[in-house]
Amino acid sequence: MNETLAIVGSGAIACGLAAAAAHHGPVLLLARSQSSAERAEAAVEKTLGRLGAEIDPEHVQVVTDPGALAKTTFVVEAVVEDHDIKAGLLAELNSILGAETVLASTTSSLSIERLAQASGRADRFVGLHVFNPVTKMKLVELVFPRGASEQTRKRTLELCETFEKTPVEVPDVPGFVVNRLLFPYLFSAVRLLEETGMAATGVDTCMKLGAGHPMGPLELLDLVGLDVAKAIGETIGEAIPARIDELLAQDALGRKTGRGFHVY
């Protein structure tokens, strides 16, 4: 079926998803306030401009009224990585959306089973973990709760195909596959920094040139956001390096604040 898509959120993942979706048709983006809506509009326009995309700006409609989502058929939640916040939002959306609408969450580490139960529509729920930058990264980790219907699975796979993404179904374990394996490595790079006093640029250059990584571990943490990285680490049971807590205390969250392990 042709889905009528909505995305809830105004951060990097939400805006990236909106820009990716705009290539294939209209999409609604729900922001929590007028100021968030204005920032989201600017971010989507900037992303589309960077891609050189010739897309009707009206393909992405940014709204602040949840009621505007009532007739959508596939809604993707992309807000802060906090179970209680996501659960409350999903329950609110459930009361607005039509009976056949699929609800998805872009969580990168939280329990899909718990979010599905909170949503009130476990048969029409899916974890849709996309990666930043969304317009470039091809992988989507798909996590289905036990009660997901075959129709939900089919529609989700078709949506991934429409967006030209590569879906991989993964187990509902903390961090899924990528973050479960990635964050112990990223945090070990921070601990190496703490133990040796090396410069962040040195660690990143070693891993880029010596291991063929497109981005060093500290650059990647800055891109993810140190607040998000801490939340993921806590979810997967990985000890948080002291240096990350120190930077968080200084409101140095990475790229989004202009400073983390590097200055931007």
Distance between the termini: 43 Å
- Give the % helix: 40-55%
* Largest pleated sheet: 8 strands, mixed
Query: What is the β-strand count?
Result: 8
Count, helices: 10
Overall 3D geometry? globular
The succession of helices and strands, N to C, reads: EHEHEEHEHEEHEHHHHH
Cα-atom radius of gyration: 19 Å
Poorly predicted runs of 5 or more residues: none
- The whole-number mean of residue pLDDT values reads 95
Question: How would you portray this structure in words?
Answer:
By secondary structure, the chain is α/β, with parallel strands linked by helices. It contains ten helices and eight strands. The protein has helices at residues 12-22, 34-50, 83-96, 112-119, 150-162, 178-196, 200-211, 217-224, 226-236, 242-249; strands spanning 5-8, 27-30, 60-63, 74-77, 102-105, 125-130, 139-143, 166-169. It has an eight-stranded mixed beta sheet with strand order 3-2-1-4-5-6-7-8, sandwiched between helices. The longest helix has 19 residues, at 178-196. The protein is globular, with a radius of gyration of 19 Å. The relative contact order is 0.10. The mean pLDDT is 95.
